[in-house]
Amino acid sequence: MWCTRWFLPLLLLPLPTAPPYFLVLFLLSLFIQAKPCFYCIVVLITLFFSSCYWQPFPIDSPLSVPWADNITTFAEALNATLATPYDKPLPPVMSTLDRCWCDFWGNGFFDPYNISQWERASVLRLADEIERERKEELAAQQVASEVEEPESSEPTEVEPMPRTAAPDPTPSARSIRDVAAGMWSVVHPYIQTIRAVAESKIPLFKMDNVTASEPVESLPALRWEYDLRTHGLGLIVDFGWTRSSSA
Q1: What is the DSSP string of 91-122?
Q2: Rounded to whole angstroms, what are the CA distances from 20 to 37, 51, 60, 103, 110?
Q3: Region (Disordered): which ranges (predicted)?
Q4: Of 32, 118, 170, 226, which has the maximum CB count within 10 A?
């Protein structure tokens, strides 16, 4: 890290205002003279890029060049920049635009850096932010006042609608009703017949060898022969039948 001794004083001194082309030639000549190693080059590039960040400072700080006799601080410059007087307290600190040790985007490559223009651009940016916040607050207050304002609208009287007679059924509706009535007149006799048969309790079917007039004998539960024909099965179960013995 001994080769960085040529460049560290550049970071300890205030930022230069020389034209960028002069600073580039100066750094190039130092690199040729010192011949830093790769690690020192990485460290130096990181240190030079870290100079681009500017920490916020108090808004009462003086300007480098006063804008007028009564505008010597950033706070006074901000009050003079605002379109309307700001009734709220100003922010205690402000941030400036980023500026690097060798700035190529300020005033050009061959022109010196303009500090006054940099300060003015920073103040204008802060003024734009304050104006935008003020417009948002006014819009929010206007919306809130419109919501809270009671609506002074008189209730309107609703006139009752006149009652009209129901329209006559259409021809299509009448035809459907006539068809339904005709179908009911055809089906109704069959329904009456089925209902009469069900109420008379007359058996419609007779099983073989069984008549309604014949009394049903009561048989014991345990017997040698079971006749299942009365239950709808053409089967007789006989437990008393035995196979004849062969001679």
Answers
A1: PSEE-PPP--SS-SSSS-SSS---HHHHHHHH
A2: 24, 15, 30, 7, 6
A3: 137-173
A4: 118
Domain residue limits, the chain: 2-145
Pairing of strands 225-227, 93-94: unpaired
CA–CA distance, 24 with 62 (Å, rounded to integer): 31
Do residues 230 and 207 lie in contact, with contact meaning Cβ atoms separated by under 8 Å?
yes
Q: What is the pTM of this model?
A: 0.48
Q: Using CB atoms within 10 Å of the CB of residue 44, give its burial: 0 to 12 exposed, 13 to 18 middle, 19+ buried.
A: buried
Amino acid at 61: S
Q: Which two tokens stand for residue 190?
A: 């069959």
Tens digits of pLDDT across the chain (247 residues): 677 777 878 877 777 778 888 888 888 888 888 888 888 888 888 888 877 777 788 988 898 888 888 889 998 898 888 877 777 788 888 888 878 777 776 667 788 888 888 888 889 988 888 888 888 888 888 888 888 765 544 555 556 655 555 555 555 556 677 777 777 777 677 677 777 766 665 444 444 444 444 555 677 777 778 787 877 777 787 777 665 544 4
Q: Pseudo-torsion of CA 30, 36, 39, 43, nearest 10°?
A: -20
